[in-house]
Amino acid sequence: MKVVSMKFALSPKTIKVALCLSLMLTAACQASSDTHSSDIPATIVDPVAAMSGSELAHAIRVGDVSAEQAVGAYLSRINAYDDKGPMLQSIIALNPNALAEARALDAEATEGQFRGVLHGVPVLIKENIETRELPTTAGSLALINNDTGRDSPIIARLRQEGAIILGKTNLSEWANYRSNRSVSGWSGIGGLTRNPHALDRSACGSSAGSGAAVAAFFAPLALGTETNGSITCPAAMNGIVGFKPTVGLMSRTHIVPLSPRQDSAGPMTRTVRDAALMLTVMAGADPEDPATINADNHKRNYVAQLDGGINGMRIGVFKWAEGNNPAVSSAFAEALDVLVDQGAILVEITDFQPDPVMFRSGDSVLQAEYKQALNAYLANTPPNVAVRSLPELIAFNEAHADRELALFDQSILIKTEQASGLDDPEYKANVSAITIAARAKGVDKLLQDHNVQVLVMPSAKPASPIDIAFTSRPAGRPLGAGWLAAMAGYPTLTVPMGDHLGLPLGLMIMGTAWDDALVLKVGHTYEIHADKMLRPTYANGPFEMPTKADVMRPYKNP
Questions:
Q1: Pick from 377, 375, 392: which is nearest to 148 by CA?
Q2: Residue 116 burial (CB < 10 Å; 0-12/13-18/19+)?
Q3: pLDDT by residue (tens digit) across 276-299?
Q4: What is the CATH number of the domain that holds 248?
Q5: Which SS3 state, helix, strand or coil, does residue 389 take?
Q6: Which residues contact 36 (CB under 8 A, 6 or more apart)?
Q7: Which residue in 24, 129, 277, 457 could disulfide with 318, CB within 3.0 to 4.6 Å?
């Protein structure tokens, strides 16, 4: 692979990553333990692939890099590491027009014409978000013909700013809401997405493909979606930045739904600045999505609000959600030291009694919402989509059980079909109780009672071994509380916090409604002073599942 002369200035972090990527593996570039050391030598990699989205956009604008060169660099890496070698299987489909679009954008650039702040920058999109050039399947064979030929509003906004849709990423099928025994990061179409830091470890989900792809330098920017942890978990376990904004800040139109009350798309990137840039582009009201009615009141330049520091800011240290993993606690303590060094005033929070209604009734509420939303989406798919309702989906999975049900069942879909309607008094009462529990008695109470502006905690445990037989689900004290913000619809950010034996760890920052800019600012301040960006080593060499290896590989549509 060709190494390109770089005439522009890179950030120190990008220089470090590029050097590690462009050399044969050495002790200096290894993970912190031989437990997950690489058996695959690093190839010479175009330094363009190591750039952040912001750096790439600048390089294209000043003429040091072309969009065609950038797209080519990422396609080469995808070919070498996703389709071959370790076979990360993070990509479901590539945009066949990506190179042609890049050339067209380059032609505009030579004339001094730039569409916007992302002119020529490739972006990967989770496979439950509609784009005009590729079907939107949610990972299921049932939607393989769901080619709507349209962009969701957030994709249209990316294109308006000059972004190139590079392709669609794998995910936990149906956003990981099909079975309580699901294998995270697996879909019937995409197979199993693997964690690039350790191939025997989970990439988490449901935005597994977006997390793994950004970590593996397949694109500088990606989109995920979250109902409860589906952005922050894969971001943390793949060692990247993931941001789930306030529900209603970004449109959900033309996205395969789960819960309109909790669903949100969000950026998955390698830097907080890039997440803020994507949010600036995509945020705003959508007349088709009632939840965004107030979004224009909070649409702002999130990049411009990153700077200024956190000196004097009161930050709640949510010790209740720290868990009991010594390695995580050690990394968390170091992260807190960074915040203190930047002038933050830390306030420990050890006591919290979450209202049991969130756990007792959460699933029944989600299932009622899922039933209504999914049926509405399926009913409006193109005519050649055979599955047009939830009962038809359940029947389809049974008819294609050798692929769709080979690893785990569809018990959640069956329960969802039996769920009550949204006009049921019990559903309404539960929604009201959960909202109060997560907001007034949850995040907002913690912020107000301790007079703090945001909460910080570890994002998640280190990635667990892939377990297709569902034989081990370790328990312990709560680690992380992203579920609390998810139920509240509040913003959460995860930023790399180092690693344990080569497995990434994340720092979570949580705020109240519409405090997205503040959450990003804290994360940015931590990130630039902690410098915990990780490089995947594609550890453990080629990886084969112990059983049912055929369904772990991608489905190839004849």
A1: 377
A2: middle
A3: 999 999 999 999 999 999 999 998
A4: 3.90.1300.10
A5: coil
A6: 197, 198, 501, 502, 503, 537, 539, 540
A7: 457
| Residue 425 belongs to some domain of the structure | no
Could you say which of 52, 172, 230, 251 is catalytic? 230
Q: Is 230 a catalytic residue?
A: yes
- Sign, CA torsion 387/393/399/402: positive
Judged by average pLDDT, the poorest of 81-90, 219-228, 415-424 is 81-90
State the pTM of this model: 0.93
In total, how many domains does the chain have?
Answer: 1
Q: Is 235:208 a contact under the CB 8 Å cutoff?
A: no
141 domain-assigned: yes
Q: Could you report the per-residue pLDDT of 318-365, keeping only the tens digit for each?
A: 999 999 999 999 999 999 999 999 999 999 999 999 999 999 999 999
* 126 in catalytic set: yes
Per-residue confidence (pLDDT) for residue 503, from 0 to 100? 95
Phi, psi of 274 (to 5 degrees): -65, -35
Residue 87 gets the label, from left (phi > 0), alpha (psi -120 to 50) or beta, of left
Q: What is the DSSP letter of 255?
A: B
Q: How far is CA 17 from its chain centroid?
A: 21
Residue 459: active-site member:
no
Confidence (pLDDT) at 542: 52
**Which residue in 520, 483, 455 sits closest to 318, CA to CA?**
455
Residue 357, SS3 per DSSP: helix
pLDDT at residue 34 in the model? 35
- Per-residue b or e along 118-135, where b marks 16 or more CB atoms closer than 10 Å to that residue's CB: bbbbbbbbbbbbbbbbbb
Residue 494 predicted with pLDDT over 90 = yes
Residue 405 in domain: no
Helical pair 390-399 and 362-379, crossing angle rounded to 10 deg: 90
pLDDT digits (tens, 9 = 90+) for 468-484: 887 766 555 679 999 99
Q: Is residue 539 pLDDT above 80, yes or no?
A: no
Q: Which residue of the set 182, 206, 259, 464 is catalytic?
A: 206
What range defines the domain where residue 143 resides?
A: 12-355+437-463+480-530
CB 368 within 8 A of CB 422: yes
Sign of CA dihedral 489, 491, 125, 141: negative
Q: What is the mean pLDDT of residues 25-42?
A: 34
Q: Spot the catalytic one: 13, 126, 168, 244.
A: 126
Q: What amino acid is encoded at 243 in this protein?
A: F
126 is a domain residue: yes
| Amino acid, res. 280 | T
